[in-house]
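Hi,

Apologies if this is the wrong queue. I'm a grad student, and the batch job for Ion-translocating oxidoreductase complex subunit A from Lentihominibacter hominis produced an output file that my downstream script rejects. I'm not sure whether the problem is my script or the file. Here is the sequence I used:
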Amino acid sequence: MTSILIIMFSVILTNNFVLSQFLGICPFLGVSKKLDSAVGMGVAVTFVMVLATAATWPIEVYILDRYDMGYLQTVVFILVIASLVQLVEMTLKKYMPPLYKSLGVFLPLITTNCAVLGVTIMNITDGYNYIESLFCSVGAGIGFLLAMVLFAGLREKLENCKGIPDCFQGVPITLITASVLSMAFMGFSGVVEGIFG
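Support response: The file is valid. Your script probably expects a header line. Output copied below for reference.
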């Protein structure tokens, strides 16, 4: 149980896929302009991460490893993730049309979201068992959601801020804010080591 907690806290705070490993930057910067869109994208990515891990781990262990076809890992994982994204997209379109419209083009881009692919591959390369892999993907999704929500909140505050010079408007202030948020998450490394170390 302790190892699962370490894995979860690690991927949520210290090894956050967006803020420390820079995976999933496209939706992080693109969808984080409004808080509701950021929450929707974070939940959708979390859901796809967990489903992708649940599907890809057995495929890797029982098919690709058993028949020495590890070279197909990335292609197979992308196909599985693409199928899951289509399932999520159809579900959102039918049951949550406003969220589907607010996510726009970024929902199909989850297919190529390197954070989702990164989590599935990391679970295999780190040697996690099935349960640890699922908890790692839940933690990574929560970390992605946390980063998206915090960044969206900061961006909404910055839109109302009047003291930003013209040369820093738009992309420059967005990147500066992302870097400061990333540095704040680096401070959690000592906390996690202190608690579980």
